[in-house]
């Protein structure tokens, strides 16, 4: 490299405005006023509707005389017909904005509902990258989990119920107008979900770091998120209500989200979208199951990047061969899972041999596969799944 040649490729980075910190949820009313909104649609799920966080926001809206409508039928893996229902309620109630309170499912459904109340056709027409034409209504996100990072990403993941797979919709239009990230919301999250969503965030960080779309900007967020999750998650598993640990997990999720939103993801998410949509399995669980196996598959194509992750975790790799370096990283993930009591495997999902073809087909066509360190063939994905079930 000559002295006049740049070390860095051209990169772009997009992120929404966000507020992070304890009691930041109380800022919702301020942004309703700042945006001059008059009738938001509150999107949530039935479990959260009666929870303290939703009640907090309703109280804020009522305190400033803002009327609102509610949609609370979002399922764990949001469906295309739920999106259509949300858009119809927004239109019929003359809502001028959206407030999403919940995890990734709620936020993705709210985003997709925003697409459809302003754009023609079906949500299926917007699968892929940059297909949204008309601007969406303003959206305020209040995440209540620490994994999906839907509140800071350019992604929305919606299940195509006819073909039973998860569609990835990617567009800068999907960045929320404001994300209000209050770690205190995690105090009501069941421990099982806390662990699953944290492993989702870890997968975001791993995949964005080795992604073909990575940059020095996304790298710094990804590596910091990985270290923070490795340090904090075992502590949280023992003390899930410790607010300092929850702050660190929420911060790690935020950083991992900003990394993958701009670098995109890879084979773990491509298979997880296909598998989770077909079997209706929780997304974070699918990611956590697949992460170490995909590293085993990918390692030869991105050894340098994976080794950098190991070094950031404190491992000394000097003089080790490639097999041993890979083994160290994979074992570090398996050890983390053991520490936190996550012992679900692909075998536990009861995937039948007859289902492998359809899962592999959707996985190789998922947009996330495009930035995997290597583009696997349909046969390779089939073999990967068959070997692990």
TrEMBL record:
Cofactor(s) this protein requires: Fe cation
CDD domains per UniProt: Fe-ADH-like
Domain Alcohol dehydrogenase iron-type/glycerol dehydrogenase GldA, first and last residues per copy: 17-183
Domain Fe-containing alcohol dehydrogenase-like C-terminal stretches: 195-387
Gene Ontology molecular function terms on file: alcohol dehydrogenase (NAD+) activity; metal ion binding
Keywords linked to the UniProt accession: NAD, Oxidoreductase
Tree of life domain: Bacteria
Protein family according to the UniProt entry: Belongs to the iron-containing alcohol dehydrogenase family.
Protein name (record): Alcohol dehydrogenase, class IV
């Amino acid at each position: 490299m000559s002295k006049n040649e740049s070390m860095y490729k051209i990169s772009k980075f997009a992120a929404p405005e966000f507020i992070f910190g304890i009691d930041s949820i109380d800022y919702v009313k301020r942004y309703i006023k700042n945006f001059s909104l008059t009738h938001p649609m509150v999107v949530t799920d039935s479990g959260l509707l009666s929870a303290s966080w939703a009640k907090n926001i309703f109280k804020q809206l009522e305190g400033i005389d803002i009327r609102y409508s509610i949609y609370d039928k979002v399922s764990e893996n949001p469906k295309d017909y739920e999106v259509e229902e949300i858009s119809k309620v927004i239109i019929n109630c003359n809502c001028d904005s959206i407030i999403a309170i919940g995890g990734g499912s709620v936020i993705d459904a709210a985003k997709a509902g925003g697409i459809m109340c302003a754009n023609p056709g079906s949500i299926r027409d917007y699968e892929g990258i940059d297909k949204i034409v008309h601007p969406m209504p303003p959206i305020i996100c209040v995440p209540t989990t620490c994994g999906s990072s839907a509140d800071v990403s350019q992604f929305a993941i919606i299940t195509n119920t006819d073909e039973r797979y998860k569609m990835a919709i990617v567009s800068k239009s999907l960045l929320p107008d404001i994300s209000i990230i209050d770690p205190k919301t995690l105090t009501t999250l069941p421990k099982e979900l806390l662990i699953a969503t944290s492993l989702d965030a870890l997968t975001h960080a791993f995949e964005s770091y080795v992604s073909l779309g990575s940059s020095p900007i996304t790298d710094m967020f990804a590596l910091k998120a990985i270290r923070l999750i490795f340090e904090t998650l075992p502590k949280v598993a023992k003390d899930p209500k410790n607010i300092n640990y929850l702050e660190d997990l929420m911060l790690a999720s935020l950083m991992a989200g900003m990394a993958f939103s701009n670098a995109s993801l890879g084979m773990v998410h491509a298979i997880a979208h296909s598998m989770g949509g077909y079997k209706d399995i929780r997304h974070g669980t699918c990611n956590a199951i697949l992460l170490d196996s995909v590293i085993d598959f990918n390692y030869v194509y991105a050894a340098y990047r994976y080794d950098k992750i190991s070094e950031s975790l404190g491992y000394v790799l000097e003089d080790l061969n490639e097999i041993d370096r890979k083994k160290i990283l994979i074992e570090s993930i398996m050890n983390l899972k053991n520490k936190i009591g996550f012992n679900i495997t692909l075998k536990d999902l009861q995937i039948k041999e007859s289902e492998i073809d359809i899962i592999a087909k959707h996985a190789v066509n998922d947009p996330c596969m495009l930035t995997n360190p290597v583009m696997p063939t349909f046969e390779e994905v089939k073999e990967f799944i068959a070997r692990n079930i």
